[in-house]
Amino acid sequence: MKKLSIIAVFVLAIVAWSCSDTSRNPGKAYMPDMAYSVAVESYTPLDTFKALGINYNAKPVPGTIKRGEMFPFPIAHDKQGETVNYEASKAVPNPITAMSPEQHTEAERLYLINCGICHGAKLDGAGVLHKRSDGTDGPYAAAPANLATNATYVNMPAGQMMYSVTYGKNLMGSYASQLSTTQRWMVIAYVKAKQAEANGAATEEAKPAAADTTAKK
Fold first, then answer.
1. Which residues make Cβ contacts (< 8 Å) with residue 101, sequence separation at least 6?
2. Does 70 map to a domain?
3. Secondary structure of residue 99 in the 3-state scheme
4. How many domains is the chain partitioned into structurally?
5. How much is the pLDDT for 199?
6. What are phi and psi of 137, to 5 degrees?
7. Residue 59 — pLDDT band, cuts 50, 70, 90?
8. Within a domain: residue 67?
9. pTM above 0.70, yes or no
10. Domain enclosing residue 111, as ranges
């Protein structure tokens, strides 16, 4: 009986010791970032990560391209007062030479949302933000460019349009944060198609590709 009591006390002592906090300290971790994951929650302030010693800025690695996305526009933004790259952008062709009816519809939607408010649904510069001489419509007195018939824009190469949309030009700001590279090229292809229609010179490159009506066996 006495032996059983001793054994019971010994077992209880082991259990009590194993449950103590002193045995829970793992010591130093060699690579704590890999051993203990820090979850990244949406809209977490970046200062939270800095306080934890984590170098995280929510930006993709330089040179990263989204799967299925086109390569970035190859011409850099001109320095203040320079126009060398703006002129060089004339030589950059639009990689989208034809659009399917679905792409044409999407390009039109993107144009109306991002461009039509200034340049107008018909590309005539009669957007809702422009204040007409009769006092109607928007608050801005400066007339947006007429993309449909103004020779400067009708004859402007697609690459130069892309430069302007990517970096901004005059009173128009950059749309690089609103539209992806592919979307910007699609909108420019749409504008060129509408310009060709307005001037009676639609080309095969500017026209949307016809739907495939071939009977499938």
1. 208, 209, 210, 211
2. no
3. strand
4. 1
5. 87
6. 65, -145
7. confident
8. no
9. no
10. 84-198
In a domain, 20, yes or no: no
Tokens 């420019």, located at residue: 188
| Spatial contact of 189 and 206, defined as CB atoms under 8 Å apart | yes
Q: What is the pLDDT of residue 17?
A: 64
- Using CB atoms within 10 A of its CB, is residue 129 exposed (0-12), middle (13-18) or buried (19+)? middle
Q: What are phi and psi of 140, to 5 degrees?
A: -95, 125
Please name the helix (run of DSSP H) or strand (run of DSSP E) that holds residue 29, with its range, or none.
none
Query: What CATH number did the domain enclosing 98 receive?
Result: 1.10.760.10
Q: Which residue has the tokens 């510069």?
A: 125
Which tens digit of pLDDT belongs to each residue from 1-39?
A: 677 777 777 777 776 666 655 556 666 777 766 666 666
Q: Is residue 43 part of a domain?
A: no
The label of the residue with tokens 């007429």 reads 146
Q: Give the pair of three-digit tokens for residue 137.
A: 């419509």
